[in-house]
Design a protein that fits this description.
By secondary structure, this protein is of the alpha/beta class. It starts with 13 loop residues before the first strand and ends with a strand. 23% of the residues lie in helices and 32% in strands. It contains three helices and eight strands.
């Protein structure tokens, strides 16, 4: 098996996560967080569609980390993002972190909206 190191040229990866927090680019964020190639900021959770809609021109897809377990994203949030032309993929937060980092390393236009585990 061949392993390849992932490199991030001028992008900010998710470094880690734990109970109630995420570490992005060396900085710790308590609670839900929204992460893009340029950095991270606090996110208000499912009720905070505006933070994600503001990214519509800069991203193609947002990975929604639903916490420790995979859950459905509220229909209103999903339909709002899709109407803005943003794809949305729900998965548990650990999987969303990994998927975001891999696609970010490929230079894709992605974001992650993450609820803590």
């Amino acid at each position: 098996m061949q392993l390849n190191e992932i490199t991030f040229s001028q992008a900010t990866p998710i470094d880690g996560y734990g109970p109630g927090f995420f570490r992005v680019g060396g900085q710790v964020f308590e609670g839900p967080v929204c992460v893009t190639a340029s950095g991270a900021r606090s996110w208000g959770g499912y009720e905070d569609a505006e933070t994600l809609l503001a990214l519509a021109e800069d991203i193609d897809v947002v990975f929604v980390g639903t916490g420790a377990d995979t859950a459905h994203v509220p229909a209103e949030l999903r339909s709002g993002l899709e109407a803005a032309g943003v794809g949305i993929e729900a998965m548990n937060s650990p999987a969303a972190c990994r998927t975001f980092n891999v696609l970010l390393s490929e230079g894709r236009r992605v974001a992650a909206a993450l609820l803590p585990v």
